[in-house]
Write a structure and sequence with these properties.
Pfam families: Rrf2. With about 140 residues, the chain is mainly alpha-helical. It is built from six helices and two strands. Helix 1 crosses helix 4 and helix 4 crosses helix 6. The two termini are about 35 Å apart.
Length: about 140
């Protein structure tokens, strides 16, 4: 499994917003400049974060992006699912039926064993991500940067 680079970028975007003094809205161009991302690419990521309910977009001259939830209530799983999706890691095509063409029962049993291993691995992965929140890496007294 390869994780998209936009996942790292999404986490960093959320951290920049979380560190903003007075929780003031952060403009997209400010985020783009700070992180070295193109404005169009950043807006694509921001759209995913808005749809996932992790950030709000405030319109107007003083608008920008703000966290919709406190950092302690945003887990890495939330960010992962916003960027990567909530779909299961494994989807099968019943190809194993071609391995055991005359033994459909055996094919189904073997496929279920494989699915079970991947499902347990995915559950452990998601559980681990759910335990780590942005609050774990938000610095209380971050110097101006």
């Amino acid at each position: 499994m390869k994780i998209k680079g936009s996942l790292e970028q999404a986490v960093c975007i959320l951290l920049v917003i979380a560190h903003t003094k007075g929780h003031a809205p952060v403009k997209s161009y400010t985020l783009s400049e700070r992180l070295g991302l193109s404005d169009s690419y950043l807006k694509k990521i921001m759209r995913q974060l808005v749809v996932a309910g992790l950030v709000d977009s405030e319109a107007g001259k003083k608008g920008g992006f703000v966290l919709k939830r406190a950092p302690k209530n945003i887990s890495l799983l939330d960010v992962f699912e916003a960027i990567e999706s909530t779909a299961p890691f494994l989807s099968t095509t019943n190809l194993v039926d071609k391995v055991f063409p005359k033994e459909k029962m055996i094919a189904h049993e073997k496929e279920q064993q494989i699915i079970s291993v991947f499902t347990r691995a995915e559950q452990a992965y998601r559980q681990s991500l759910s335990q780590f929140t942005l609050d774990h890496v938000v610095a209380e007294d971050l110097p101006d940067s």
